[in-house]
Amino acid sequence: MEVTSFINQLREDRPGNRVRQDNSPLAEYANRTPEQLRQLVEAMLRSRRVEQEEKLLLRKGHNRFFIGSSGKELIDTVLAHTLRLTDPFVGYYRNKAFELGRGASVRDKLYEALGDTRALNKGQLQNHVGYPELSILPQVSCTGAHALEAAGVAEAIKHPVPISAQSFKPGGTWPSDSVVVCAMGEGATSEAEFGRAVFNAVFFKSPAIFAIYNCGWAISVSSAEQFVGGDLAVPFLGYVPHGLKIMRVDGTEIKDALAAVDAAVTYARSGDGPVLMDIKVTREGSHSGSDDQSWYMDPVQVDWHTYNDPVCKTCRTLIDDGVIDSKEIIAMWDALDSEVSGVSREVVSSFGFKTREMIERLVYTYDFHEVNRIWRRYREAYKGERAARYKEWHEKGYFTSPDLPEDIGPMTMRHAINYTLFDLFEMTSDVLLFGQDVADFSGHMINEEEKQTTLKGKGGVFLVSRNLQREFGNDRCFNTPLDEAGILGRAAGHCQQGRRVIPEIQFLDYMSPAYQMLKDRIATINQRSGKLFKLPMVIRTTYGGYKQGAGAFWHSEGNLGTWMNIPGLLIAVPSNAYDAAGLLKTAWASDDTVLFCESVALYNRRDWEGVPMETGIPPLDELIPFGVARTYYEEHTDVGIITYGATFQMARKAAEVLKEKGIHVRVVDLRTLKPMDEEAILQTAKECGKVLVVTEDRFPGGAAATIASVITGGEGLFHLEAPVKLVTAIDARVAYGMDGDMSCLPTVDKIAAAVEELHEKY
Predict the structure, then answer these.
(1) pTM, entire model
(2) How far apart are the first and last CA of the chain?
(3) Set 555, 636, 719, 759: catalytic member
(4) Same domain (yes/no): 282, 329
(5) Which terminus of the chain is less hemmed in, N or C, by CB atoms within 10 Å?
(6) 582 and 694 part of one domain
(7) Sign of the CA dihedral running 439, 445, 448, 452
(8) Is there a catalytic annotation at residue 555?
(9) 305-314: per-residue pLDDT in tens?
(10) Are residues 593 and 688 located together in one domain of the fold?
């Protein structure tokens, strides 16, 4: 029954049912007092009245979309009133009653409905919001993936490594005895990320509750077409002996809901494992404003949802049991009606319009001065003897020299990154590094310290993280399953708790399973939360070809244009030891998410066809700013080459070859692609007049086209003496074999030939 009709029916009923006079706990209501039950009812009614207003605003043309929460109010409010404020909630777009029950205001919800600039969700659809002070993480429309972040938060809360006083969340966001609740509809449990989230929570016995709001329909798809036997819990029955508690809950019956939530919270907080709650709820109205369930749902089913409306059903149960008077419910509704109507008129009349500048300011937080401030805060808190530590590590056999890394002299890029990781790990416990194969040892060998001394250890497939686990322990450097989405979900969870983590995706080729986590959840965090939340992580990954023929299709991707197209993601691509060390420190101290791309071809090379590549690394406190290119052979102006990463080293070789032919080439190493040094690009176009852009990326949608457009779309165009020329990977995946790289990717010869053509033809 629609709630207004129910309230009107109460008005017509004979008033004055007998109500208990004392406020003692009621056993049949899981020991809640009548006053607590009144609070539950008021929260449910508030949510339903706000939803009515949202529909009204849609009809009046003040907003453009509506998605309802009706039918979920009972379980939402029971969770809100049972959990502690320090229990994080990772929900979806139907948890309006939970948000209001935990403390969000009617004004907040109506700002969201209108898309007002004062809304906390900053341009998202309504009901996609986060409240840091209420421990409610911001939602996105791509449900299912949020379960991985929830599992990550639960793991992070339980993680034994302490969070420093220097963290942006000193000591950690939530206490170690917190419970994490992840709410979603039953349709989202079919997403692969949900299955991995449950696995992670079971594996770590994390304090997580997966609350599945099961109305039987995912838009117009019935549960019968989603689950074996129509039962969403079937895939997870095998986890029960390993600590998973599966519960069936009637979310339309207040007594069942109260008892079930109490049991779930108690179990999750005990440390015995996570809980999967299959909660029967109703759908009071269609999926959204663009859906009409009467077109496809059996009228008998529609009636079942209507008759089991948890708001009306709860009110009737409490009236029948003499817990609350119908007059009180009417008075609650009338007061809420007046409040919501008044707030609605006010927010509509004072609507705040969005601007391009306001939206753009939300996407990134990067500021080099702030990065240095964060770095100094950690450095000043470090009380160790760094020089003594390096001598100790040398004695343990980790390094060939006892000297500080910046005093050693030229080194390969692999060693520079390894040294920098050691410095970060030594400086603060807030650093964790995890991914596939990153640890030195696995399984029982983690604890076999005597046997470890006889083995080299793994430390990454390219040995970049070698000896980190051996020195700092398995709680700080550890292996993960082959689960890229899970790696980033866990990283997001640790960041939410206050750490600055370094997840590793072994190859950029294998970022694809994590694409949704990165693009839709992690990289959007600043914009969608109005910078109230942040996820400061450095995603280290290898990229590119030139692996002496061994890369082929699945180990040679250089498609950085794909990742440049993601708002909120910074991208660094070092080409040498010095830049790798300096940029990695900057990335770690940034409050944005950074994709740190390391060319496998550069890890161990000392030269590129005779041109020396090894460099020293900067002092510990010298960071390299993002968006600042480095120009080589600046005095040369015949042709300018703009590039980054491995192709930068090729361009240097090509410049040496061309110099012998009387062609003097300037080479610009961008170092970071987001932000990109547009000033250096334009200056090269102005001073050289002829520009070649070289990338391992392919042309369609690639980085090269973006770089070229900086010139042709601006004043650089008027200084050109020739069209901007590109040398990129061909529009194909890299072939296997010694001739594969040469056939598919830029080479020194191709770069030199392109420069000669530019120089001679124009």
Answers:
(1) 0.95
(2) 78
(3) 555
(4) yes
(5) C
(6) no
(7) negative
(8) yes
(9) 888 999 999 9
(10) no
